[in-house]
Amino acid sequence: MFRNWKETRRAACWAGQSQWILFVPLAYLFIVQLDMGSIGAWLALYAYLTVFGLAVMIRFYRTDWSAVRVREAHGAL
Question: Which residues are CB-contacts of 55 (< 8 A; sequence separation ≥ 6)?
Fold first, then answer.
């Protein structure tokens, strides 16, 4: 799915940013505002992982795999 360093770096940055944008506020909302304790933290994690998984799935299915070049490894056994 990730063809080069640029795409891998982009995905890692997106993952880090989405944690701060989605997971941290949801965890605060569930834990502090709704007084759910550790259950709220787990619910926030499940919500974050669901959204992140859907984003990765959309990225995967939107990729034109016929245009992807596969390079052969050098020095492989």
Answer: 14, 18
Looking at residue 73, what is its pLDDT?
65
Model confidence, pTM: 0.70
Q: How far is CA 4 from CA 8, 10, 11, 15, 36, in A?
A: 6, 10, 11, 17, 42
What residues contact 36, with CB distance under 8 A and at least 6 apart?
Answer: 30, 43
Residues in the chain: 77
- CB burial of residue 37 (10 Å; 0-12, 13-18, 19+): exposed
Task: Report residue 73 CA to chain centroid gap.
Answer: 28
